[in-house]
Amino acid sequence: MQEENNSYKLIPGWGVDANPDDRPNYPMKKWTGDDHKRINWQRPALQQSSVEVLHSNERPSKSAVYGTTVPPTGLSGQIRRYAFRHSEDKYAHWLPLLLADRVNMVEGVIEDISSGHFPNYFKERGFTADWKYNRGAVIQKVVGAACVLLVWYAMSKTKKKKRFI
Amino acid sequence: MKAMNYRGPFRVRVSEKPIPGIQHPEDAIVKVTHSCICGSDLHLYHGLVPDTRVGSTFGHEFVGIVEEIGPEVTELRVGDRVLVPFNIACGKCAFCKQELYGNCHESNPSATAVGGIFGYSHTAGGFDGGQAEYVRVPYANFGPTVIPEGMHVEDALLLTDVVPTGYQAAEMGGIQEGDTVVVFGAGPVGIMAARCAWLFGAARVIIIDHLEYRLDFARKYARCEAYNFRSLEDVVLFLKKTTDWLGADVCIDAVGGDAAGDTMQTITGRKLMLQAGSATALHWAINSVKKGGIISVVGVYGPTDNLVPIGNVVNKGLTIRANQASVKRLLPRLIDHVMAGRLNPREIITHRFPLSEVADAYRIFSAKLDNCIKPVLLPSAD
């Protein structure tokens, strides 16, 4: 008969929380009855702010506290306002938000340039780290991109020549 | 102040921002000393979380010193060194009263499915995060916890998310003494979940990933078996065979929507974003657990839909438990484990960066360069 290997029991702390009655929260739901009062709990003081905050239409009002960073602006803001007309159940809520994020990315670049700050793509994408730890892959990418550019350039030259014949 | 500034997928930098002020009587302003980059920050960094606005500051794992308090803050004093749970909880709503502090209903106006989280997009409340010199901390009477005397600051830092999330992953698995537990994902949370599974009396812990350096780390730190799914022809079949053809008692998904390992899931979930991330780990968990087994999900997925074999969940009679970690609920027990030496969280930190190198830090963590397990940003090191 094979002897049972119990060496795992020597791991520091093994079994210290094994008793289900002595776990921080067992069973999972600690029922207090408060949820039967529905939303009639005593609310914390409500945060006051003049910043535009979009709130889910699945709740009657804003939560007592909220973030006031980066309020919706521009085209992406318009898209976000549209998205929040739809419940969290709908694609019409989430997909426009993803679209707004991509539009916002372009707005960010425009904003950078218009304020005289040209984004340093290499630095922002962590090129220094890539060059230090992943040089082979970086060189591979650069060579690949150069080849694509060369092929594109050669093809465009050929097309121009054909036009003159 | 200097703060991490998101500019779009895979692009971040450090910018000057105004120091945050008190906006609510229970607010505190915390001067950040240490701030982690979390694996779930990578979902934001990769552009997978809807309503992640350009100009946002990420960071939900941080510790620091209380700089200023609002007029109704009574539980903290200026100068206190605090660890701040990643979830923002009021402590008063019906959900907080059930100790579901990750599900507070008074901290996020933008989505009812998730409570407020620091620096985690407007979908999680639009709060700026702790990858900055200063951060606004709402509900300062409830959330922030004074770091116990004698606790290493980096242990405290990891008690804000990684340790509670890993511990709750194991707890939700309902592990019985003698159980076999499989953890999918050898990132910081997966490694911590594997380590914590022993505390609940597991007899066998297996971790699955595809990065050898992480599997090596998990073997040593979590003292578990570790397997590379790229070297297994069929990970589910392997797990069945190694568990007497029955399946594991408990499976933990500690990966979420960034999972690799299945081409179809990767294309539809991560590349085309036709589902809310790649559900490969959850798929494997459902198919690897025994009949009547429990699946615990702490991996982060987006808010829309995912392709998972729900029919197998029904036919096998599985229980799926999932939640954001209820950090404040777990802290007393976890502080005890750390102080007693049963858990050594700071051993998983492999990289420390000044805040000015935040773009490199994200790149290294995201691309898994230089054997990175857990990076920490030091805003005061600049």
Automatic annotation (TrEMBL), chain A:
Keywords: Membrane, Transmembrane, Transmembrane helix
Top-rank lineage group of the source organism: Bacteria
Protein name: Uncharacterized protein
Region of interest called Disordered, as start-end residue ranges on this chain: 1-22
Transmembrane segments: 137-155
Automatic annotation (TrEMBL), chain B:
Residue ranges of every copy of the Alcohol dehydrogenase-like N-terminal domain listed in the record: 25-142
Pfam families named among the record's database cross-references: ADH_N, ADH_zinc_N
A Gene Ontology molecular function term of the record: zinc ion binding
Coiled-coil segments: none
Domain Alcohol dehydrogenase-like C-terminal: 188-322
Keywords from the UniProt entry: Metal-binding, Oxidoreductase, Zinc
InterPro entries xref list: ADH-like_C, ADH-like_N, ADH_Zn_CS, GroES-like_sf, NAD(P)-bd_dom_sf
CC cofactor: Zn(2+)
Protein family per UniProt: Belongs to the zinc-containing alcohol dehydrogenase family.
Protein name: Glutathione-dependent formaldehyde dehydrogenase
Organism: Pedobacter yulinensis
